[in-house]
Amino acid sequence: MSAPPADQTSRAPGAAFILKKALISAFVALVLFSLMIGVRTEAGPQGQLIYWTRFDDLAAMVAAVFVGSILMELLRQWWGPVDTVRVVPASVQSALSLVGRLVAPVLLVFTFLVPVLFYNERYILDLAILVLTYVMLGWGLNVVVGLAGLLDLGYVAFYAVGAYSYALLATNFGLSFWICLPLAGILAALWGVLLGFPVLRLRGDYLAIVTLAFGEIIRLVIINWQSLTGGPNGVTGIPRPTLFGIPLSPADDGLAALLGIEFSPTHRIVFLFYLILALALLTNWVTIRLRRLPIGRAWEALREDEVACRALGINTTTTKLTAFATGAMFGGFAGAFFATRQGFISPESFTFHESALVLAIVVLGGMGSQLGVALAALAMIGGFELFRGLDQYRMLVFGMAMVLLMIWRPRGLIGHRAPTVFLKRSQAISSDLVKEGHG
Amino acid sequence: MDYFAQQLINGLVLGSIYGLIAIGYTMVYGIVGMINFAHGDIFMIGGFIALITFLILVSFGLTAIPLILLVVLLVSMAITALYGWTVERIAYRPLRHSFRLAPMLSAIGMSFVLTNYSQVAQGARVKPVPPIITGGYTLHEGAEGFVVQLSNVQIIVVITTIVLLALFTWLVSNTRLGRDMRACEQDQTMASLLGVDVDRTISMTFVIGAALAAVAGMMYLLYYGLVDFFMGFVAGIKAFTAAVLGGIGSLPGAMLGGLLIGLIETLWSAYFSVEYKDVAAFSILIVVLIFLPTGLLGRPEVEKV
User: Is the Cβ pair B244, A220 closer than 8 Å?
Assistant: First the structure.
C-alpha cells in the first residue's frame, strides 16, 4: 500500500513550514522572556527595588530559540520518523547481546581497580565514592519503586534517619561504626514500617504525596529539634570509621603503624571506597536473592497488579511493609556511611532534591534493572560533576537533561522488565484440559 | 476570642492563595493523571512577572492603584499562562501515552529548570516591594485592647478568589471547553472519537491552571510584599497537599483543602509553635488519608479487573 500523497507532503515539510514554526517559537520565546530576562530587578541601596533593561540578552535568547528551532526541525527530518523499525543485522545483534552480557562484570572489575588506577587522584576517588553512594541509594529505592511499584518521594527520610542515628549514637555514646551500622539500618527500617502503615490503603499518587510529606516532616523535625539534632547547625565531629577497631590514623596503634608502612591520608579514602563498594554490593546481592524468594516474587506481582495479587492470596500488607522496610534499611546503611564519610551532617543534605535525584536514577535506570540503576547513577552524578564548571547554570542544565532524557528514553536506559519466572518453552495444551473445572 | 477571629481571617486569606494554586494541580491531575511538579514554580513565575510589571508601571508614572492592579493581573495571567502552555508542550506532551512515572520525572526536571531560570534571570536575593494597598477596617475592639483587623489586601485576595472560582466553575460546567475537559477526564480515547481535540483541551487545562497560579502569585506578592525564586517549592507542596486533602480531581475539594491547610497552618502557628506549622499540615494530611484514602471530597476509585 502506498501512502496517500497528503501524507507524503506532511512528512517532508518545506522551508516555509520550518520557517513558520521557527517564527512561532521565537515569538513565544519573546513573550516568555520579555519580562523575566528583558528586565532585571534588584533591591537598590535604600532597599527600594530598582530595575534595568537587558534587551541585548533578550534578543540573543530569542535568536537562539529561532535558530535552535530550525536546527531541531532539520535534525528531525534527517533522523526520519521516530517509529520506524531499524533493522539490525543478526551478526551485530549477537555482538550487541554479548557486549550487553559483558558490561556488568567488566564494570565490576573496573570498579574494584579504581583505587589502584587512580590512587593519587583524590578527586576521582571522592567522586567514585559519591557515585557508589548513589548507586547504593538507587538500589535501595529500587526495591520499593522498581520491584514493589510503590512510588516513594521521601526516600531521603531514611537516608537522614540512618545518618543521624550514626551521628548521634557515635557522638553521644561513643559507639563504633560497626555497631552503629546495623543499628542505623534497623532504625531506618523501623521508620520504614512506620511510614508503611498509613500508606497501606493508598495507591499511586496519594502514596507519592504522603511519602513526600513524610520526608519533609523528618527534615523539619531535624531542623527544629535543636536540643537533640543541633538544628540547622547539624552534628559535627562524627568519628571516622575504623577497620574493625583499628583506626586509620597516623597514631601508634593506627593501621599504617601496625603494617609498618608510611601513613597517608589516602588510606582512609581507599578504605571508604571499598566500604561503600561492599555495602552497595551487599544491597545488590540481597536484592537479587530476595527476587528469587517468594517475597520478591510477591513484590513484582504487586507492581504488576495489586488486585490480582490479592485474588491470588498474597498478603499485600506484609508485602508492602517488607518492601518499605527493606528499602529503608539500605537507605539507613547509606546514611550511616554518608555521616562517617563527611564527619559532619546537617539538614541541608536531606532535601527533596535528593529524593528526586535518587528517584530519577531509579527511573532512568529502568525500574528494576540493577545494572541500569548503576549506569544511571554514574551518568547522573558524573554528569552533575561535569556541569560543575557551569556554576549557576548547573541546575538549569541538570533539569533540562532530566527532561530530555525522559523524553528520549521514557522507560529508562535499560528499559525492560524481564520476569524472573517464566516457562522455558511454550507448551501446546489440549482442549480437554482447559474445559470448565479443569483450568 | 478576638485573637481566634483574627487568626481565622488570616488563615482564610492564606487558604485562598493555596486554593488557587491547588486548582491547577487538581485539574491537571484530573485530565492527564500526573502530578505537575512544576506548578509551584509556575506560581513563582507569576509572582515575579506581577512584580516586574508593577515596577515598570510605577516608573512610567501611573498612580491609579486599581488600574495598576488590573493591568498587572492581566499581564501576569497572560504571560504565566504562556509559561504553562510551553511547559506542557515541551515536557509533557511527548510523554502523553508513556509510562506513568516518566511525565512525573520530567515535571520534576522542569521544576528544577524553572527555579534555576528565575534565579539566574532575576538573582537569588529576596525582592521586597513596599505595601501597595494599605488601610483596612477594624472589625472589633476587644476589652484588652486587642483589635480584630481586616485589611484591604485581605479583602481583595478573598474577593478575587471567590470571583475567579465562580468564573471557573461556570467555565467548567457551562462552556464547550468545560465539556471537553470533563469528557477528556472520563475517557480520552472516546472523547477524541467524538470530535474533541484532546491535545488542545489538555493545553487549555494547563493554560487555565497557570493563569490561576499567576493570580495566586500576584496575591502572594500583595499580601506578603515579597517574592523570591525558591517560594514555588514550599507553596507548591502545600497546594498539592491541599489538592490531595480535598480529594484530587475535585474542584471544590481543592478549594476546601486549600482553606483547611491555610487554617491549620495559621492556627497552629498562633496557638502552638511557628516552627512546626508545616509538620502539622503534613501530619493532618497523613491522618486524613488514613481514614479517607481518597481525600475529603474525592470519589472512591472503583477497581475493575
Answer: no
Residue B298 has pLDDT above 50, yes or no: yes
- CB contact (8 A) between residue A214 and residue B286: yes
pTM of the model: 0.86
Which of B48, B109, B301 lies at the smallest CB-CB distance from A403? B109
Chain B residues in contact with A35 (beta carbon < 8 A) = 48-49, 52-53, 75, 79
B266 assigned to some structural domain = no
Query: Where in the sequence is the domain holding A60, given as residue range(s)?
Result: 13-79
Residues from chain A contacting residue B125 (CB–CB below 8 Å)? 42-43
Residue A190 lies in a domain: yes
Q: What is the pLDDT of residues A161-210, one digit of tens each?
A: 999 999 999 988 888 888 899 999 999 999 999 888 888 777 777 788 88
Interchain pair B117, A396: CB under 8 A: yes
- In the DSSP assignment, the letter for residue A152 is -
Gap between the Cα atoms of A386 and A379, Å rounded = 10
Put simply, the answer to whether A42 touches B125 (Cβ < 8 Å) is yes
- Most A-contacting residue of B28, B90, B112 (CB-CB within 10 A), to test interface: B112
Tens-place pLDDT, residues B94-108: 888 877 778 888 998
Q: Which of B99, B105, B289 sits opposite A206 (nearest CB)?
A: B289
CB A204 within 8 A of CB B269: no
Question: B137-155: per-residue pLDDT in tens?
Answer: 877 777 676 778 888 889 9
pLDDT score recorded for residue B248: 82
Judgement on whether residues A183 and A70 belong to the same structural domain of the protein: no
State how far residue A69 is from chain B, nearest Cα, in angstroms.
12
Query: Which is nearest to A417 in space by CA: A379, A365, A374, A378?
Result: A365
Q: Are B119 and A394 in contact (CB under 8 A)?
A: no
ipTM (interface predicted TM): 0.85
Contact by Cβ (8 Å): A282, A137: no
Query: Which of B105, B121, B126 comes nearest A402 by C-beta?
Result: B105
What residue ranges of chain A have pLDDT lower than 70? 1-13, 80-88, 245, 252-253, 257, 260, 414-439
pLDDT of residue A323: 92
Residue A350 lies in a domain: yes
Separation of alpha carbons A170 and B44, rounded Å: 42
- Kindly give, in sequence order, each residue whose CB lies less than 8 Å from that of residue A4, ignoring residues fewer than 6 positions away: none
Question: Does A87 fall in a domain?
Answer: no
In a domain, A415, yes or no: no
